[in-house]
Amino acid sequence: MLATPLRIFFVWLSHRRWMARLAMGVPLVRRLAHRFVAGTTLDEAIAVVRALNARGAMATLDVLGESVVDRPSAEAAATSYVTTLDRIAAEGLDANVSLKLTQMGLDLGVEACLEVLRPVVEAGSRHGIFVRVDMESSDYTDRTLEVVRRLRADGCDVGAVLQSYLKRSRTDAAALAAEGCRVRVCKGAYAEPESIAYHDRAEISRSFVDCMVTLLEADAYPAAATHDAEVIAAVQAAAAERGIGKDRYELQLLYGIRRDIQDRALAQGHRLRIYVPYGAEWWPYYMRRLAERPANVMFFLRGLFGGR
Ligand code: FDA
Question: Disulfide-capable partner of 73 in 55, 68, 85, 129 (CB 3.0 to 4.6 Å)?
Answer without folding.
Answer: 68
